[in-house]
Amino acid sequence: MSDSKKILITGGAGFIGSAVIRYIIEQTAHQVINLDKLTYAANLQALQSVSTNNRYFFEKVDICHRHALDHIFEQYQPNAIIHLAAESHVDRSINHPAKFIETNVIGTFTLLESSYHYWQNLAKDLKETFRFIHVSTDEVYGELQQNESKFTESTPYAPNSPYSASKASSDHLVRSWYKTYGLPTIITHSTNNYGPFQHPEKLIPSVIANALAGRPILIYGEGLQMRDWIYVEDNAKALYSVLINGKIGETYNIGANNESTNIALAEKLCKILDELAPQYKSSIIKYRDLIQFVSDRPGHDYRYAIDSSKITKEIGWQPQEDFESGLRKTVIAYLNSKQIIG
Predict the structure, then answer these.
(1) Is CB count within 10 Å lower at the N or C end of the chain?
(2) How far apart are CA 38 and CA 258, in angstroms?
(3) What are the distances in angstroms from CA 327 to CA 73, 84, 138, 270, 321?
(4) Active-site residue numbers?
(5) What does each C-alpha distance from 57 to 6, 25, 259 come to in angstroms?
(6) Phi-psi bin for 11: left (phi > 0), alpha (psi -120 to 50), beta?
(7) What is the 3-state secondary structure (H, E, C) of 103-120?
(8) Cα 320 off chain centre by
(9) Cβ distance 341 to 335 under 8 Å?
(10) Could you tell me what percent of the chain has a pLDDT over 70?
(11) Which has the closest alpha carbon to 290: 280, 298, 303?
(12) Model confidence at 3, in pLDDT bands (50, 70, 90)?
């Protein structure tokens, strides 16, 4: 895919999707068609730097609507798809699971059907180079205990929340469209992403926003759940690398070896804020004084950890941002955002 191609990205106004679009527009000659329903999780500010580029196109589309998808394929004639559109917040999936089934399962099915219909009718050379990249999560693997080995691509699925179950379902659909119909698909499993423009309901931006506002920083249970973290721009580069060099029918795990308990992460963010934003503190001595523990959520997985040696060995990708510098960049971005501070 060295020539200029048309890449269709679903959920491109979301946190990870917008990072992928920024990377492709800024670092390659490809065109991008962004399909997004513009739900609460969309953030068009994250695309401001590329919104006027003549290689960027936006279409407000719900991936559950087959007719609209067929029209997009006919209009833009894409050479590849990176499928990121998804409901992704575990807490919301517990309270409103139907939305997750609709978008993550029915939406993926509808996109597969439309993609397959389009792909079948391509000329031979275009058919051979077409790719469908399905972006999933490490949460489909379930949870790990303290001393268990990290998730690999062969780890059995064991989802524990409606969110992860819906993503596991979509993964199986994508695999079956490859095995049954020959659609050239690749599946990725990314660990927890962080960085600028993330929705404030997620852990890292919620810690930062609450700290700056002097509100309680709420941590589930005792905060001992462990997560593996990757800077969103590293993940964007990984997804593009999979698109260009990934092998059809394969699965690739994407992680950065940054395991941390939730409480340690919150304390680390508070320490950075003590240094960079002392002016927002009122009567508190340190931001960590705002941390409060609340009852754990149902089915809360204890630990996630990704073994990403396969993508490094086969594709040559590896993360560039270390955890300390990535967190500092994230805090600085939020401090520069009037939306968060104001």
Answers:
(1) C
(2) 31
(3) 39, 23, 21, 11, 9
(4) 138-139, 163
(5) 10, 11, 37
(6) left
(7) HHHHHHHHHHHHHHHHHH
(8) 17
(9) yes
(10) 97
(11) 280
(12) confident
Which pLDDT score, from 0 to 100, does residue 132 have?
A: 98
CB 224 within 8 A of CB 8: no
Is 42 in contact with 87 (CB distance < 8 Å)? no
Strand, coil or helix: 124: helix
Taking CA atoms, 122 is separated from 80, 128, 182, 241, 317, in Å, by 12, 9, 14, 24, 30
Which two three-digit tokens encode residue 24?
């492709």
CB atoms closer than 10 angstroms to residue 128: 10
Three-state SS for 145? coil
Q: Which two tokens stand for residue 271?
A: 């320490």
Rounded CA-CA distance 303/260 in Å is 9
Query: Rounded to 5, what percent of the chain is helix, strand, coil?
Result: 45, 20, 35
Tokens, residue 315: 């594709």
Per-residue pLDDT reduced to its tens digit, 90-134: 889 999 999 999 999 999 999 999 999 999 999 999 999 999 999
Instruction: Please report the pLDDT score of residue 338 as a whole number.
Output: 55
The single residue listed with the structure tokens 């804020």 is 273
Q: Contact at 8 Å (CB) between 227 and 219?
A: no
Phi (first) and psi of residue 226, to 5 degrees:
-110, 135
- Read off the pLDDT of residues 300-337 as tens digits, 9 standing for 90 and up: 888 999 999 999 999 999 999 999 999 999 999 999 98
What the chain holds in terms of domains, given with CATH numbers, is 6-198+230-256+305-321 (3.40.50.720)
Q: How many CB atoms lie within 10 A of CB 15?
A: 24
Burial zone of 172 (CB within 10 Å; 0-12 exposed, 13-18 middle, 19+ buried): middle
pLDDT at 282 over 70: no
Angle at 199 between CA 166 and CA 66, to 5 degrees: 45
For residue 8, the number of C-alpha atoms closer than 13 Å in the C-beta half-sphere is 29
Residue 137 token pair: 């999560």
Encode 215-275 in three state secondary structure: CCEEEECCCCCEEEEEEHHHHHHHHHHHHHHCCCCCEEEECCCCEEEHHHHHHHHHHHHHH
Q: Are 191 and 227 in contact (CB under 8 A)?
A: yes
